[in-house]
Amino acid sequence: MEEKITRPTDYFGVNLALLLAGKIKPVHQSFDDKKFIASVKKQCVTQSLTQRVETIADNLQLLLPANYPKAIHILHKIMGEENPNETGMFKEFYWLMPVGKFIEKYGLEHYDHSIEAIEELTKRNTGEYAIRPYIRQYPAQTIRQMKIWARSKNFHLRRLASEGLRPKLPWASKLDLYIEKPKPVFDILHILKKDPVKFVQKSVANHLTDYIKVNPKPVFELIKSWSNNGNEHTEWIIRHATRKLK
Question: Contact, 34 vs 1, CB < 8 A?
Answer without folding.
Answer: no
